[in-house]
Design brief:
The complex is a heterodimer. By secondary structure, chain A is mainly α. Chain A is built from 18 helices and no strands. Chain A has helices at residues 2-16, 21-33, 35-50, 63-77, 85-96, 127-140, 144-157, 164-179, 182-195, 197-201, 205-218, 223-233, 238-248, 253-270, 280-291, 295-313, 316-326, 330-348. The longest helix of chain A is centred in the C-terminal third of the chain and has 19 residues, at 295-313. Chain A is extended and about 80 Å long. Chain B is mostly helical. In chain B, helix 2 crosses helix 3 (26-48). Chain B is globular. Chain B starts with a helix and ends with a helix. The chains are: A mainly alpha, B mainly alpha. At the A-B interface, helix 1, helix 3, helix 4, helix 6 and helix 8 of A face helix 3, helix 4, helix 6, helix 7 and helix 8 of B.
Chain lengths: 349, 198
């Protein structure tokens, strides 16, 4: 029993580190007495060698966000507003410019470490936290409307609790992604942006993209998004329905892009393109473009190809060619020219 | 903060920076974050399994570490101590799992705007999707380990910490680390073998 326990410890160590001589001798003797243990050791070695070890890449600088948290906490302790007016204006400017994380001005007073020790500012358990837990359960069972209703009511009663920003973001996400209540989602994302700005600053990029998408769709009373949903649900000829969405909304850049990508995905699903291919999406876009007749649809698909060449494959000449084709249509001209300018700037660097 | 000060902080070792933070120099903490944020994020990602939660965990862990630095002593290396704060926070976070809602809603929406114009997360080719599938299975298998087993495996396999360093991070004996590591690897192999990987 003790020998087995010791052997297992040494096996674990030997998977990653070299053993001292006497431990290696012990393990070898153990293996000779227990051939199955040797087999397991070899299997574990192969497993560890095959397990991926690549690290997830961090594509953001966390310093501004951590700084903001420290300063926010310090501000609470000093009974100051969360963001001073100048910082709030700076936040609006930076977010409008598309920055993921806000860099607060250095002039903001840092919190003193001694003031921030554990226990000095820990918030009490909030009633909103209970509503969030209930929302979780409702979402798990697919009761999205009830989840929205419960959380919305709780947030209305407790708009200033520590979890309020998180609750507001959850409401916006439910309204957009689950219920497709686009007008409501627009209002919710706006409230998140305006009232819970600190939460907004820490949101992932897709949340900010959704706000932009909704702002654009609002110009046509969200009809573009509703038509996109209908085209996605079309069983008879979804490609044609999606192409019509592109052609119908020349000024809805986000929706056009979504429709184009959806056409490519449907093409992959149909088997027209090998889904195992490393450039399946690109092939699918090309395939759909070859079939398309509407000039705006062709231009939009060219733009998507250019974007993929640029961002995924780093084939800048092909990206340029695709963007040039896209720029031939008036609706895509400005967008494609911006992309070409970006490529030019990258080539200079 | 001026450039001279930045240069000075960059020349300091971790322990000296941590002591400076304890003395009230917030700029020294910027340098510590700059050095270790990728590692903190990587550990957070192993526990969370998605970018959004990992960013939350990493940011909050770095904030917590700042708050707790008053109790840190140089006899414990700064990095092992930071790893301990990060793993503990990751476990707490997942227990609460508030943010899982958002991740779930994001993952299930059929179209993602980020694919298109902004370049934040362009649509992945199928090969990447396959790699993502394996990654998801690995993450699910990791979730089935005990906290101790997962901590040890993540710190050894992904972060490359020596067993003695892991013992320091987790405040346990090296023997205990070895036991958890053996059980973790054995269990992961069986879990992933059952679903056809490895």
């Amino acid at each position: 029993m003790f020998r087995r326990r010791k052997a297992e410890k040494l096996m674990a160590q030997a998977l990653y580190e070299s053993l001292p001589e006497h431990d290696a001798a012990f393990l070898e003797a153990y293996f000779q007495a227990h051939p199955a243990a040797r087999e397991e050791m070899e299997a574990l070695r192969r497993f560890v060698a095959d397990m991926p070890t690549e690290k997830p890449q961090l594509n953001a600088d966390l310093i501004p966000a951590v700084r903001a948290r420290i300063e926010e906490q310090s501000g609470r302790l000093e009974k100051k507003p969360r963001l001073r007016p100048a910082a709030a204006i700076a936040a609006l400017v930076f977010v409008a410019a598309g920055f993921f994380l806000l860099k607060l001005p250095d002039a903001a007073p840092p919190g003193h470490l001694a003031d921030l020790q554990d226990g000095t500012a820990a918030p009490a358990a909030s009633p909103l936290a209970a509503a969030l837990s209930q929302t979780d359960k409702l979402l798990e069972t697919g009761n999205y409307a009830d989840a929205y209703k419960v959380l919305s009511a709780a947030l209305g009663r407790s708009p200033d609790e520590p979890d309020a920003g998180d609750a507001q973001m959850t409401l916006a996400e439910i309204a957009f992604a689950r219920l497709h209540w686009y007008e409501q989602a627009y209002d919710d994302y706006e409230r998140l942006y305006q009232k819970y700005h600190q939460t907004w600053l820490n949101t992932p990029p897709h949340v900010r993209d959704r706000r932009d998408l909704l702002a654009e769709a609002r110009l046509v009373q969200f009809r573009s998004l509703q038509d996109l949903d209908a085209a996605r649900a079309n069983k008879l000829d979804p490609l044609d329905a999606l192409a019509r969405v592109i052609a119908t909304y020349p000024n809805q850049a986000y929706v056009r892009s979504q429709a184009a990508l959806e056409m490519a995905r449907r093409t992959i699903e149909s088997g027209a393109v090998d889904p195992q291919s490393s450039d399946a999406l690109l092939q699918a876009l090309r395939h759909v473009r070859n079939e398309a007749s509407d000039p705006l649809v062709v231009a939009q698909l060219s733009y998507q190809m250019g974007y993929l060449y640029e961002s995924q494959y780093h084939e800048f000449d092909k990206a340029r060619e695709a963007f040039l084709q896209a720029s031939e249509h008036p609706a895509l001209q400005q967008q494609a020219r911006s992309a070409l300018a970006r490529l030019d700037a990258e080539s200079i660097q | 903060m001026n450039q001279d000060a930045d240069r000075n902080w960059a020349a300091q070792d971790d322990d000296a920076l941590a002591m400076a933070v304890k003395a009230g120099e917030l700029a020294a903490y910027d340098e510590l974050i700059r050095r270790h944020q990728a590692r903190v994020y990587a550990v957070a990602y192993r526990f969370a399994g998605n970018r959004e939660d990992a960013l939350d965990i990493a940011q909050e862990a770095l904030f917590k570490a700042y708050r707790k630095l008053g109790g840190w002593e140089p006899r414990t290396g700064f990095v092992p101590w930071l790893m301990r704060v990060t793993t503990n926070h990751a476990i707490d976070h997942l227990r609460r799992s508030k943010r899982r809602r958002t991740a779930r809603l994001t993952d299930e929406y059929p179209g993602r705007e980020a694919d298109t114009l902004t370049g934040h997360s362009a649509a992945q080719p199928e090969a990447a999707a396959r790699a993502g599938e394996i990654g998801r299975h690995v993450h699910q298998a990791l979730e089935r380990l005990s906290n101790a087993q997962r901590n040890v495996f993540v710190l050894r396999h992904y972060e490359g910490l020596q067993l003695a360093e892991i013992a320091e991070v987790l405040e346990c004996s090296i023997g205990s680390v070895k036991v958890h590591l053996f059980r973790a690897v054995r269990k992961l192999r069986l879990e992933l073998k059952d679903i056809g990987h490895f």
